[in-house]
Amino acid sequence: MAQALDADLRRALAERLRYYHELGIYDFYRRELQVTESVASVSADVAEPASALRSQPELREEMAARKPAVVAAVAEENIFDLLTPKPEQGVVDSNRALKLIREDLGDCMRCKLHKQGRKQIVFGVGNPRAELMFVGEGPGADEDAQGEPFVGRAGQLLNNMIKAMGLRREEVYIANVVKCRPPGNRTPERDECETCSPFLMRQIAVIKPKVVVALGAVAAKNLLAINAPMSELRGRFYDFMPAGVRSSDGWLGAKLAVTYHPAFLLRDPRQKGEAWKDLQMVMKYLGLEPPKKTEE
Ligand code: SF4
User: Fold this and answer.
1) Which atom, in ligand 1's list, is nearest to the CA of 114?
2) What does the pLDDT read at residue 293?
3) What's residue 250's pLDDT?
4) Which residues pair with 135 in a beta bridge?
5) What is the DSSP letter of 26?
6) Starting at the edge strand that comes first in sequence, how are the strands of the sheet with 125-126 ordered?
7) Which of 49, 141, 150, 263 has the smallest CB count inside 10 Å?
8) Contacting residues for 162 by C-beta, under 8 A, at least 6 apart
9) Do 179 and 189 form a contact (C-beta atoms < 8 A)?
10) Are 134 and 209 in contact (CB under 8 A)?
11) Residues of the chain with pLDDT under 50
């Protein structure tokens, strides 16, 4: 029996579907409703593709967008944000500037992730003057417990990737698009990314890296504000200037490259060769050499 949906629920579902479309997810299915099932179960059905992705983050990597190419070239910049002075502006010491951003973040409750089981905010870690920065999607259970990004199995693999590039973890900077763990490792939702990512943009503007590597489709989509499958996103550099922040000290922005999320590579090690190609492109740009075997 068909049931009329409440206008608010209908709007929320439409919004959610639009977000999934932007992520390249188009196919949904719906179970037969039992007469006793509530209207709320309709939204659960629509959310089912997302719950499948929660437990298999690697599936997010190769979501084939049906739109053939980039659909939005530049992130919207809020002129009021640009004009609002930030505490770190004018602070030359990047370590101090990052601390000011962390203080500004405070015990953040700006998005709903603050009340969905996070243990702590995972701000970011590494060299405040790093030439190379990695950006992932959001903290997982290990990161939430330890307060540091990429410390679980995926973090170990990222460490190995960094080492293979001839660098140490302490030499790069690592952060995520959202700083609180999404429940069940689900994909961060658009409103959560939009609320949290300005702080990431400010971190990038302080660090002024030469290269930012987006780990996975969600990070790439949020940094570049474009919607395309990994196969189209990878293999090239983008000119990147953090949205919503003013450049300073003559910094003209970074090059941004996209590669697979280490969690995806753990599930599909056959793609490690492709990820290595992405990293080699970055190494060439930064003039890095892989470590000699005798040095290991
Ligand atoms: S994810 Fe970001 S914006 Fe949301 S509560 Fe955590 S720190 Fe605040």
Assistant:
1) 5
2) 72
3) 82
4) 175, 214
5) -
6) 125-126, 173-176, 132-136, 211-215, 254-259, 238-240
7) 141
8) 134, 168, 169, 171, 172
9) no
10) no
11) 1-4, 21, 24, 26-59, 63-77, 296
pLDDT tens per residue, range 115-168: 999 999 999 999 999 999 999 999 999 999 999 999 999 999 999 999 999 999
Distance from the Cα of residue 15 to its chain's centroid:
20
Angle between helices 190-207 and 217-224 (to 10 degrees): 70
Could you tell me where the DSSP H helices lie in the chain?
7-22, 40-46, 48-55, 79-83, 94-105, 141-146, 153-164, 190-207, 217-224, 230-233, 262-267, 272-286
Alpha carbon distance 48, 56 (integer Å)? 13
Cα 270 to middle of ligand 1, angstroms: 34
Distance 156 CA to ligand 1 centre (A): 25
Q: What is the sign of the dihedral through the CA atoms of 248, 173, 180 and 97?
A: negative
Structure token digits, residue 104: 């500004």
Q: Residues with beta carbon inside 6 Å of ligand 1?
A: 105, 108-111, 113-114, 121, 178-180, 192, 195-196
Closest CA to 215 of 278, 281, 153, 152: 278
